[in-house]
Specification:
The protein has twelve helices and 18 strands. With 363 residues, it is of the alpha/beta class. Belongs to the Gfo/Idh/MocA family.
């Protein structure tokens, strides 16, 4: 175990997207990871990325994605490429024996994701998607409260919202509104987080049915820039979400049980890097003249020395080090969570395309 803890996993970054700046910093902050290579279709661009982000001296700049995969010093790759390129390069990475941290949305559809996960299985490499908030210690603390049957009771309903207001340049030129690059638009970029939060709250039990909400907004190219959906489980649980590139920055998650309610307003990116709040109400009622609540919701603040994205990298690197140093098998829970998220996302998209008809969510 001591060997696993000290093994440093060497990352190659494939693509110089804006989000790669954040993840390259996370790799630097993680105690068991480092960047050794950056690849771009333009070697000068890779060199500029290395310099601008203060990557370690000696980090190699490659003028192609293939060169990163052929770099024998690279243990794992981070892929922040447009979604339409994920299948090609994630499969190629797996076939080269590189462990894969993949930006979300992970694929255009579950069939494409299955190709990626199949390649990972066949080559014994670890897969994880880059849903950072899953790794914040707040997430584990909230799970403890949701699992407390005396304080939370049975899960009844979930509501999740992730929106931000984009400027005209974003709505015209960003890759997330281009059908040939990221055809899922806001559903893939923001809805992914909402769907994952709903599945997380439901302990990854898949809903039976998705019904997209009427009134989605599409751009001239037919890409979703605002949409939502409701979900229904066989036992009567319900959930809703809304995502949009047109509405002020909002990150609400409310999880309602028969005895308690959990609520937070920054579930994707905490208000502050080193601490994250949430509230939890349990067995609440009204005061005598209905002028307030009794008892009041409890306020919780969970601190962390490492930001959530660095904790994500550290956990991914730990899993990779176990595989490399002791022959452990890849951890299967992370690809399973990814696949369920993609399944639900696919169902929402299908419901929109079918005129908001209910769509059963398969397995």
């Amino acid at each position: 175990m001591a060997e696993n803890q000290t093994l440093t996993i060497r990352f190659g970054i494939i693509g110089c997207a804006e989000i790669a700046r954040k993840v390259s910093r996370a790799i630097a902050l993680a105690p068991n990871a480092t960047v050794v290579a950056v690849g771009s279709r333009d070697a000068d661009k890779a060199r500029r990325f290395i310099s601008a982000n203060g990557l370690p001296e000696g980090t190699r700049a490659h003028g192609s994605y293939e060169a990163v995969l052929d770099d024998e010093s690279v243990d794992a790759v981070y892929l922040p490429l447009p979604t339409s390129l994920h299948v090609r390069w994630a499969v190629a990475a797996a076939e080269k024996g590189k462990h894969i941290l993949l930006e979300k949305p992970t694929a255009v559809c579950v069939a494409d994701l299955d190709r990626i996960l199949g390649a990972c299985d066949a080559n014994g490499v670890q897969f994880m998607d880059s849903t950072m908030w899953m790794h914040h210690p707040r997430t584990a603390k909230m799970r403890e409260l949701l699992s407390d049957s005396e304080r939370f009771g049975q899960l009844r309903a979930i509501n999740s919202i992730f929106t931000f207001s984009s400027d005209p340049d974003f709505l015209k030129n960003d890759i997330r509104v281009k059908p040939d690059l990221d055809s899922l638009g806001a559903l893939g970029d923001l809805g992914w987080y909402c769907i994952r939060s709903i599945l997380w709250a439901a302990d990854y039990e898949l809903p039976k049915t998705a019904v997209a909400l009427r009134g989605p907004v599409l751009n001239e190219a037919g890409v979703l820039i605002a949409c939502g959906s409701s979900f229904i489980w066989e036992d009567g649980k319900v959930a809703t979400f809304h995502c949009s590139f047109l509405t002020h920055l909002t990150m609400e998650l409310c999880v309602m049980g028969s005895k308690g309610t959990l609520h937070l307003s920054d579930f994707v990116v905490p208000f502050e890097e080193s601490s994250a709040p949430f509230t939890f109400a349990s067995n609440s009622g009204f005061t005598e003249l209905v002028t307030g609540w009794q008892p009041l919701p409890s306020k919780h603040i969970v601190t962390t020395e490492l930001p959530q994205e660095a904790r994500m990298v550290a956990e991914f690197a730990r899993l990779v080090s176990c595989i490399k140093s002791s022959g452990s098998k890849p951890e299967s829970s992370w690809p399973a969570k990814t696949r369920k998220t993609q399944l639900v996302l696919d169902a929402v998209k299908t419901s929109i395309e079918k005129g908001f008809e209910p769509v059963e969510i398969g397995s």
